[in-house]
Design brief:
Layout: H1 13-30, H2 34-60
Helix pairs in contact: 1-2
Length: 66
Amino acid sequence: MDTSHYIVNKPHPAAYALHRQMVAVQRTMTAATVEESMRAARWANAWYQLVQRMLDQIQQMPRYLH
């Protein structure tokens, strides 16, 4: 089955992780309870660490001049 016409533009994984981090930070600020805020802050921190790891990997990729 040819699926070439079903290609969907996906965001770069680092962009997706950065978006999820932003959502988690927003949840932290708008949480109704302290527990909910703490949970969202842990998620924001986890997404932050993932974003930083991905950005470090991108920076270390070899650059080719064509």
